[in-house]
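Hello Y.,

Per our agreement to keep a running log of every chain we model this quarter, I'm adding this entry. I've kept the format consistent with earlier entries: sequence first, then predicted structure.
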Amino acid sequence: MSQNDPHEEEAPRIRQMIIEDLPEVFHIGEEVFTAEYSQSLYRTWDEYEITTLFNSDNELCIVAEHEERILGFALGTTVKKHHSPWKYGYLVWLGVRRELQKMQVGARLFKELKRRFKEQGVRMIIIDTSADNEPAIRFFKKHGFDNVQEHLYMTLNLSKRHKKKAVKKP
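Predicted structure for the entry above:
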């Protein structure tokens, strides 16, 4: 009699997100997109992100599930520009529970989302991430993304008092 190897467990099932998944997906995002992880992602991750994408592009909102537990999610949308024959896919969010990262859940989610984008006539997929998010950059390069361009984000905290710089008199 052989014992089951934990690495031989069946792969998670990738399926379209349903409304009952929204709270769990939101909580996974809260776990993954923290201020320590990325200031810009932390500021923009909220329940409206999920509900807006779910309501507008439901077929591009998918989850990875195993034994009725959601392991991760991918949320995408498409963009069609006027006067352009191209349709773009935008992978807006990809999140996997921290303890399951590096176990191919993200890769399986991306592969399915890419298939769905192709099915909808998308010719190019766009992603964005923080310039210092090395794990995400490695992940996307591994999946064929290139042409990395840095983008600068700036903030102005309106709740802080800003001191005026003293002007030196001659």
